[in-house]
């Protein structure tokens, strides 16, 4: 998308212990350089590693974020983490509505929207994930699902600065399967039109990431698709070599 800085984001999911901090450190070093002026890089480790990761990367352009937040600021919500707590650890981004949250924890569009609002209130960038299941794609319902999820999960007043959309076909996550470039182009063009219709100029500039089995070998092709403004990477973001190779697809 013209005049948009792409974002390459990594989602570690429930992976990573203190041993993995050397990967974060290597990524922090690896993204130093001229490319960092043109492409943003973000890693979302498990929240146990959040604070130490931001400290490790304070002299690096590598951004650090979290994978989910609660919709409230604080209170009696055992096991949950608020957007304020993420910001307090110097996290800058939070993923909301990942398909694994939607499936494992029943996060609905309405809840995802409230979480994104909580992220904005804490001055975090919300990465709002949407995407169709295999059955929905086979049933020809992909665009309809994306329309409903975008309308339901993205808060009113979202801007290009505080919101990123991640299109992740559920059937492509962790499976090694990816849609064709033509299918990615169709989905992203549709989302762009929806965002423009709702948010005007902000929607024209809002980043739309592709996620689902992005690897060093397919990153260049996927990132070259029109209206693809970066990637959300799961498995291939765990190792610095793979993550940096995907980031460098923009070289
Ligand atoms: C993800 O979890 O956001 C993801 C895209 O996973 P993977 O890259 O492993 O398919």
From TrEMBL:
Subcellular location: Cytoplasm
Family matches, as InterPro entries: Aldolase_TIM, TIM_sf, TrioseP_Isoase_bac/euk, Triosephosphate_isomerase, Triosephosphate_isomerase_AS
EC number, as in UniProt: 5.3.1.1
GO cellular component, one term: cytosol
Pathway: Carbohydrate degradation; glycolysis; D-glyceraldehyde 3-phosphate from glycerone phosphate: step 1/1; Carbohydrate biosynthesis; gluconeogenesis; Carbohydrate metabolism; erythritol degradation
Domain of life: Bacteria
Main location class: cytoplasm
UniProt similarity note: Belongs to the triosephosphate isomerase family.
Protein name as catalogued: Triosephosphate isomerase
Organism whose genome encodes this protein: Mycoplana azooxidifex
Gene giving rise to this polypeptide: tpiA
């Amino acid at each position: 998308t013209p005049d948009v800085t792409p974002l390459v984001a990594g989602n570690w999911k429930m992976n990573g212990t203190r041993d993995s901090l050397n990967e974060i450190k290597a990524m922090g070093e690896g993204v130093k350089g001229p490319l960092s002026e043109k492409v943003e890089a973000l890693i979302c480790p498990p929240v146990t590693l959040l604070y130490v990761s931001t400290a490790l990367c304070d002299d690096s352009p590598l951004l650090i974020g979290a994978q989910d937040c609660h919709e409230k600021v604080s209170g009696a919500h055992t096991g949950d983490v608020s957007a304020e707590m993420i910001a307090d650890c110097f996290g800058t981004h939070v993923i909301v509505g990942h398909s694994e949250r939607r499936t494992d924890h029943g996060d609905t569009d309405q809840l995802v929207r409230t979480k994104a609002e909580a992220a904005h209130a804490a001055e975090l960038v919300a990465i709002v994930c949407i995407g169709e299941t295999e059955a929905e794609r086979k049933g020809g319902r992909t665009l309809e699902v994306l329309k409903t999820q975008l309308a339901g999960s993205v808060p009113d007043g979202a801007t290009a600065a505080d919101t990123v959309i991640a299109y992740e076909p559920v059937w492509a996550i962790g499976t090694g399967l990816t849609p064709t470039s033509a299918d990615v182009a169709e989905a992203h063009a549709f989302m762009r039109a929806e965002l423009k219709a709702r948010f005007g100029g902000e929607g024209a500039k809002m980043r739309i990431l592709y996620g689902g089995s992005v690897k060093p070998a397919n990153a260049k092709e996927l990132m070259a698709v029109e209206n693809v403004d970066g990637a959300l990477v799961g498995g291939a973001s765990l190792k610095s070599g793979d993550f940096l190779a995907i980031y460098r697809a923009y070289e």
